[in-house]
Amino acid sequence: MLAPLVHANRAGRRAAALTVTLVVAIAVAGAAPPAKRKASLVVTGGTVVTMDPQRRVLSPGAVAIDGKTIVAVDTPQAIAARFAASDVIQAAGTVVMPGLVNTHGHAPMVMYRGLADDLKLMDWLEKYIFPAEAKTVSPDMVRIGTRLAALEMLQSGTTLHTDMYYFEEEVAKATKEAGIRGVLGQTIIGFPVADAKTPAEGLARAERFIQAFKGDALVVATVAAHSMYTVDAETLKATRDLAAKYGVPLLTHLAETRDEVAESMEKHKLSPTAYFESVGFWDTPGLAAHGVHLSDADIAILLKHRVALSHNPESNMKLASGAAPLTKALKAGLVVGLGTDGAASNNDLDMFEAMRQAAFLHKLIEGDPTVASAQTVLEMATIGGAAAVGMADRLGSLEPGKLADLIVVSMRSARQTPMYNPISHLVYVTRGDDVRTTIVNGRIVMRDRRVLTLNPSLVLADARKLAEKVRAAVAPAPAQSSVAR
Ligand SMILES: [Zn+2]
Predict the structure, then answer these.
(1) Claim: this prediction has a pTM higher than 0.90
(2) Does the N-terminal peptide bond of residue 422 adopt cis geometry, omega within 30 degrees of 0?
(3) CA of 86 to the centre of ligand 1 (A)
(4) What is the whole-number distance in angstroms between the Cα of residue 341 and the centre of ligand 1?
(5) 220 C-alpha vs ligand 1 centroid, how far in Å?
(6) How far is the CA of 227 from the centre of ligand 1 (A)?
């Protein structure tokens, strides 16, 4: 996973050596010091957690950005000497780190947050989620829901989200309005849904969507086959072909529950992973969400086809789906990113919480506190997530030449004091609300908690209004248990 980065870094070192040579040459020639280079933004004085190939932490450090690109990461003095910045963020008392990459979600489902909890998966789906979706999914709902999700994400440090839903062009528009990135998959499913009566209609819609956003600075438009149990073999192949045609990552759900595996074994005599392989679904680069019930043979199949995994610990725990074989997958060399899944089964989009839960879950389930270390889960939420969506050459770490997606996280609260190790703090005590500033593609989308893209009060008002429709669309919530009898 890191080989290309190490390679890139060698090139970077050569470039750095060349720069040093030039500077020395100028100094020897006795010329005036070189004019400072222009930077659109410098973030300086914080502890910079780079997540670069050496996993360097600069304390204090500074990041210089010009336009959409990181141009230097160095000490505050070195950056001040080299760059004249038109804007400076003083970051003392914070950690400056790559923006978080959420590798699996259904943004508009924030509208079903807390609608019904503590139910068996089938009761939850059939009595609440499916009826709510049947009656409320529309372009409006998707737009209002995604704005709400994007607001929550940029406020909690997520700079890229991966999505699978309907009317995905509305997800894309709202994502761009918020100024964050999206790897957004138009969902293909084997039964009539709000935006397509048939899978063929869904595929045509997906192709139009991919074409409409081709080359977009923030959105990678793609296609998602819902799962191996909701899409037939022919449609799976057509979905794969569409992703291959446009060179976009193929998204799907994989081996989320025991029932899915049992059904696949009964129907195909193959695990879901092996079934996907048997129909050639893995022949184009893909990202599979969950992978809770994977055998060693399944992991080998994913590795062979370079399929990345999105690990969603909170959703898997809440729905009692199980715990993915994270340590085995990482040891085997799979690319693993972290995800929240939709807010209907989480119930929030806070990637800091996802990191903490991932660490705790695997320590508990594997009976070993040394697994899923803070460093490991921080990698999954940054550089691993970027690799999982095929963008590790551009995102996931703070390095010159990469796109400027970074966040500034306050470390000054009582909960975070004292701070001996920033990596430990990012995973074990930090919450999404600790994010002060969020920068995506070099643009500040939230500065000192003030959102500069969306209008938060309008976004919340629209969502509250829509929630009345959602409430009316489903059965009354399950009775709250009461202690008084
Ligand atoms: Zn999902």
Answers:
(1) yes
(2) no
(3) 42
(4) 5
(5) 18
(6) 10
CB atoms within 10 A of CB 428: 16
> Which two tokens mark 179?
């100024």
Please give the distance, rounded to the nearest whole angstrom, from the Cα atom of residue 138 to the centre of ligand 1: 19
Give residue-wise pLDDT tens across range 72-115.
Answer: 999 999 999 999 999 999 999 999 999 999 999 999 999 999 99
Compute the distance from residue 344 Cα to the ligand 1 centre, in Å: 10
Q: How far is the CA of 104 from the centre of ligand 1 (A)?
A: 6
Q: Report the separation in Å between the CA atom of 203 and the middle of ligand 1, taken as the mean of its atom positions.
A: 19
Residue 323 pLDDT > 70: yes
Query: Cα(296) to centroid of ligand 1, in Å?
Result: 23
Which residues lie near ion ligand 1 (Cβ < 5 Å)? 341
For the stretch 155-203, pLDDT in tens is: 999 999 999 999 999 999 999 999 999 999 999 999 999 999 999 999 9
Diameter of the chain measured on Cα atoms: 90
Cβ-contact 60, 46 below 8 angstroms:
yes
Q: How far apart are CA 317 and CA 340, in angstroms?
A: 11
For residue range 358-378, what is the model confidence (pLDDT) as tens digits? Answer: 999 999 999 999 999 999 999
